[in-house]
Write a structure and sequence with these properties.
Blueprint: E1 2-10, H1 16-30, E2 36-43, E3 49-55, H2 58-70, H3 72-79, E4 81-92
Antiparallel strand pairs: 1-3, 1-4, 2-3
Helix pairs in contact: 1-3, 2-3
């Protein structure tokens, strides 16, 4: 399993409601991609956003980039991002715990 972590800010002119609608639309798109498992989008106290996507593999995550960049929903989502504050990480899961002690 792989995790894609995207840390970003949205442009100051973008309404939160519009951005959240773009999140919903792109989640629908991502669900059609082979290897997609799940997505969590959250906002930090600092105002930065975290988009955490779980994939079967890093290759599956990277394969979805082309679709995301060419689909109308993906383009709209990307247009809302502040390009100066954007980081992406692809990681292989090395340990996972899903139960409380």
């Amino acid at each position: 399993m792989a995790i894609e972590v995207v840390i970003f800010q949205i442009r100051p002119t973008v309404a939160r409601a519009d951005f959240l609608q773009a999140v919903e639309e792109t989640t629908t798109l991502l669900k059609t991609q082979e290897g997609f498992l799940s997505r969590t989008v959250s906002q930090a106290e600092s105002g930065e956003w975290l988009d955490i996507l779980y994939w079967e593999s890093i290759d599956a995550a990277k394969a979805a980039i082309t679709v995301f960049q060419t689909d109308q929903a993906g383009k709209r989502f990307s247009d809302y991002l502040d390009g100066e504050h954007f980081q992406v990480f692809y990681t292989d899961v090395v340990s996972e715990s899903t139960e409380r002690a």
